[in-house]
Amino acid sequence: MPAPRGTWRFTAPTADHAVPRLRHAVRDLLERQPVTVPRETRDTALLILSELVTNAVRHAALLSPRIGVEISLEGGRLTVAVEDDHPYRPKALEAAPLDESTGGRGLLLVRVLTAEAGGVCDVTRTGTGGKVVWAALPLTGAL
Length: 143
Description:
The chain is of the alpha+beta class. The chain has helices at residues 18-31, 39-60, 106-116; strands at 6-13, 66-74, 77-84, 120-125, 131-138. 30% of the residues are buried.
């Protein structure tokens, strides 16, 4: 059976309610694919999506009233990308913060989850000065 293929785009306001709405929309999209996306890959992608959208809501809303989400199934990979208009390029924390705060670890979590799945993640600039934060996970179980 051939590997799944396709690209889907969603937009949402940069607001707290976008996180669960986008997560549910992407979950439903992945569940409707003709070839099953492995559950572990799907769950990892949904957690990554939640972290990236939450980061955009918390850090980009002032300069980016809307965010874009792109989901791609191509070349044996599931790619999750979140775009906003804020020019700041986030960096993953090199190590966990020394204090006991519960915030500030979202991008580190994305990097760890992506690496554990055998994928890659990065941040790229858009032509309009914003950024896209993305993670690509292998679909080894779907091929």
